[in-house]
């Protein structure tokens, strides 16, 4: 088995495959472990989505990340005043309500990724950093391995877990993988009196503006519908003005603190904001787990385990038809609407 990509998804898959008994697993990454899209993510973990499969994945991800077996709490409907009580300074006069899930929260992207990577290595997985895939070994239609600057690696199955770079790898296989990279800016403020460690991650789905506690301040951001596709991760400081306009209406306390630091990372977008998980069409031997549209970190524990079960046992434990890589050829699909 060759897994292309050592972000949280690739490391999770490698760990679960190895834990289930598969041997001779090699993970390759063009850079360092967890230094791609995973490093730049905001770390949110939630079950508040618009599609059933994603809600189920979010619930299971929280259970796995928290390490307990009991049923988690349900999402609660809040009156606007209750939401304002939870989040100091939140403007709610124009809202009809809010939803809150007490077990949603945050986790460390680096900690989770390296936890999976280290555990996978203990099971015998080999991880090569700074080794890009330059070609695929293709015989007929079948993918039988990869070619790198260090030589060839033959494998029965090859899995693309390359996040925003999945589309480029698709070109090397000769088929289209509909994953588009899109920049997201993330900012962190200085100290804010309105925030406490218990303030929940808050998302305004009308605008995608979000924030959560980070040290004495907050980590915040917002999507930009005008953002052109591409791999540029230069921070767009001018975008702060757009966010400030939204914050002035929704959460004015943000304007009281200076921005301390910022970075930019990449989302891996698909046409319906749903991931591609399963065997690649018309390329026997090739699989994919990519296109998570900003949700890859929180989904990685679950998708890693479910995909490993599928690859080893011959069928998924859960119906993943909504994530089929060839679904767009069949017509319209159900999109995920709760994308930040």
Give a description of the structure.
It is a single chain. The chain has helices at residues 8-19, 37-40, 52-66, 80-86, 109-122, 166-173, 239-250, 296-313; strands spanning 2-4, 26-28, 44-45, 76-78, 98-100, 105-106, 126-128, 135-139, 142-148, 151-154, 158-160, 180-189, 202-204, 209-214, 217-221, 259-269, 276-279, 286-290. The protein is of the alpha+beta class and 340 residues long. The strands form five sheets. A six-stranded mixed β-sheet has the order 7-2-1-11-18-17, with helices on one face. Helix 1 (8-19) runs parallel beside helix 8 and helix 3 crosses helix 8 (296-313). The relative contact order is 0.20.
Query: What's the shape?
Result: elongated
Unreliable sequence segments: 68-73
Question: Average pLDDT value?
Answer: 88
Could you tell me the CATH topology label: FAD/NAD(P)-binding domain
Q: What CATH first level would be assigned? A: Alpha Beta
- Helix proportion range: 25-40%
Strand order of the largest sheet: 7-2-1-11-18-17
Order of helices and strands: EHEHEHEHEEHEEEEEHEEEEHEEEH
Number of separate strands: 18
Largest pleated sheet:
6 strands, mixed
CATH superfamily (homologous) name: FAD/NAD(P)-binding domain
SSE-based structural type: alpha+beta
Domain module count: 1
Which percent range describes the beta-strand content?
A: 15-25%
Indicate the radius of gyration in whole angstroms: 20 Å
The span between the termini is: 33 Å
CATH architecture: 3-Layer(bba) Sandwich
What's the number of helices? 8
């Amino acid at each position: 088995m060759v897994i292309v990509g050592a972000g949280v998804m690739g490391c999770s898959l490698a760990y679960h495959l190895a834990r289930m008994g598969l041997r001779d697993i090699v993970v390759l990454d063009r850079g360092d472990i967890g230094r791609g899209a995973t490093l730049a993510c905001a770390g949110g973990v939630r079950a508040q989505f618009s599609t059933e499969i994603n809600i189920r994945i979010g619930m299971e991800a929280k259970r796995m990340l928290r390490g307990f077996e009991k049923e988690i709490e349900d999402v609660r409907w809040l009156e606007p005043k209750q939401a304002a009580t939870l989040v100091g300074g939140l403007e709610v006069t124009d809202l009809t309500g809010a939803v809150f899930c007490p077990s949603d929260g945050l986790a460390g992207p680096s900690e989770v990724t390296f936890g999976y990577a280290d555990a996978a290595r203990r099971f015998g997985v080999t991880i090569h950093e700074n080794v890009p895939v330059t070609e695929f070994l293709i015989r007929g239609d079948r993918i039988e391995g990869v070619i790198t600057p260090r030589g060839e690696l033959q494998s029965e199955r090859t899995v693309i877990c390359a996040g925003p770079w999945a589309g480029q790898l698709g070109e090397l296989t000769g088929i289209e993988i509909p994953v588009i990279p899109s920049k997201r800016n993330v900012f962190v403020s200085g100290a804010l009196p309105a925030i406490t460690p218990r303030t929940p991650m808050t998302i305004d789905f009308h605008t995608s503006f979000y924030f959560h506690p980070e040290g004495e301040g907050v980590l915040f951001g917002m999507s930009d519908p005008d953002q052109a596709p591409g791999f540029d991760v230069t921070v767009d400081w001018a975008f702060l003005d757009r966010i400030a306009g939204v914050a002035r209406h929704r959460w004015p306390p943000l304007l009281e603190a200076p921005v301390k630091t910022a970075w930019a990372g990449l989302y891996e977008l698909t046409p319906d904001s749903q991931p591609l998980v399963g065997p690649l069409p018309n390329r026997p031997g090739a699989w994919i787990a990519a296109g998570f549209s900003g949700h890859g970190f929180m989904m990685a524990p679950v998708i890693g385990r479910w995909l490993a079960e599928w690859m080893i046992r011959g069928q998924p434990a859960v119906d993943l038809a909504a994530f089929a890589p060839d679904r767009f050829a069949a017509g319209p699909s159900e999109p995920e609407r709760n994308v930040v």
